[in-house]
Amino acid sequence: MTLDWQSFLKRYGPLARNMARGLGCREEDADDLIQEACASLWRVLEETPSRIEGESHMRNYFLKAVRNLSLRIRRRPTPANMDDLAAPSPPTHDEPPPWESMAQAIQRLSAKEQDLLRRRYSRSQTFAEIERELGIPVSTLHSRQERILSKLRRALNRCQEADP
Amino acid sequence: MNTHLERDSLSRLAAGELDAEESMIALKHVETCSECARELDFLADLVAAVDDQSQSGTSAIEAREPTTHSRMLVPALALFVVVIAARLVLRIPEPVLPSVHPEAPAYYRVALLADDDSPKARLDRAMTPYREADFVTAVKTLTEFLVQEPGHALARFYRGVCHQQLHDYSSARRDFLAAQETSEGFLQRHARWRLAQVAIQQDDPDRARELLGQLVQEGREFSLNAEQLLQDLP
Fold first, then answer.
1. Domain A98-162 adopts which CATH fold?
2. Which CATH superfamily includes the segment(s) B75-94+127-232?
3. Does ipTM top 0.90?
4. Which residue has the higher pLDDT, B34 or B163?
5. pLDDT digits over A118-143, tens only?
6. Residue among A6, A97, A121 minimizing CB distance to B47
7. CA distance A82 to chain B (A)
8. Cα distance from A79 to chain B (closest Cα, Å)?
9. Are A71 and A23 contacting, i.e. CB atoms less than 8 angstroms apart?
10. Which ranges in B95-149 belong to alpha helices (H)?
11. Fewer CB under 10 Å: which end of chain B, C or N?
12. Are A105 and B50 in contact (CB under 8 A)?
């Protein structure tokens, strides 16, 4: 089973980083352990490919590895060398990556809605932190996020339906 | 058999809010529940797109970049670039300690240095891990310095070098771009040279050609290297 590492990391790397940070890892450690999790996944794919079938298994394996490593890794001086991790399959760009239509859908949101997504999923701010900064009650933020996510789901469903 | 996860469990996982036990429960559930797995993919795409947008500070589509961790270097070219870059780094004047009169007593000099809070002295202290090739710590100390001196082009440049050493090419690119835009002369050209390297490392030969072409046209200290690298590009 080959894997397009570029697309895979592009898709799941940011979520994994948020997860690692949430489990107490520092920013630089989060990057290191994502690399470590990739190396682990790569080894499994090379040595016992039958253990992992399909991208959903890879995603689960990768995220669990990130979670487990987050609990173990505290500090490492240098990151693992990732140069050879791309070896199993060169990146391909024949199909648009899945986050591209998501990015387009996000761009159609209002500035306020985009700001909330950035705070939640890029800066990993909690609702309580956002409330302190913006003065908007947590309950309002919560329902606003729900509305945004529904809006994005609808937009993406429309995209998928429009594609042949 | 599946009862789905609580409505916001996965979005909290994506935002990094679940503890170790909760995240394991969520991930285990996702293994057996296709609906929640789809939701996790939806959130992964959301985080990836938002992260991309935040990092670029512009459009999420236009600024889509290759990932930092999965770049492949062409070994021979990489070696060439590293050798040239190492040589060029040596040309950059290192920040110097504030000058103290040589006749001053040692304890006085030490006191002066310790109290010196000038940007130059603080940058010098921030550069200590860089000199020891501890690039992870150097990113931190240079970032702390840049919080106080946000427009400091040389600090952005050095932090870019650290990111580049750590294979974080997107961050390196941002720092070199900022250094290029906020400086002039040698530092500006050096930042441009580094941007060309990063473009190669990010598999963007067209961008690298553009930058190297500029360096060749300028006919200054990087033009010969740029010319040679242009010839080696695929």
1. Arc Repressor Mutant, subunit A (1.10.10)
2. Tetratricopeptide repeat domain (1.25.40.10)
3. no
4. B163
5. 899 888 888 888 998 889 998 999 99
6. A121
7. 6
8. 7
9. yes
10. 106-115, 119-126, 128-131, 135-148
11. N
12. no
